[in-house]
Amino acid sequence: MAIEVRIPTILRTYTDGAKAVDAKGATLQELIGDLEARHPGLQDRLIEQGALRRFVNVYLNDEDVRFLGGLETPVADGDTVTVLPAVAGGAR
Prior knowledge:
ThiS/MoaD-like; Beta-grasp_dom_sf; about 90 residues; alpha+beta; Ubiquitin-like (UB roll); about 25% strand; Molybdopterin converting factor small subunit; Mopterin_synth/thiamin_S_b; 5-stranded mixed sheet
């Protein structure tokens, strides 16, 4: 069994258009490393200077990983990781 990673539309060019991909790892950091091995370029869109990029939100089973331990957050088979770009702006 693996961990399902849900990919936002803007990053699907790295996953050949797949909405979700499987990955493995004991922590979020390892999971992203496995994603990078399978889908090169994805890690650079998620991590900057050893931390999650400011405008990328990552959820583990609907919980924000920034409140769970960041990149050191443990993950397990059957979990779901959702990557969402932050949305800002608008018109007055």
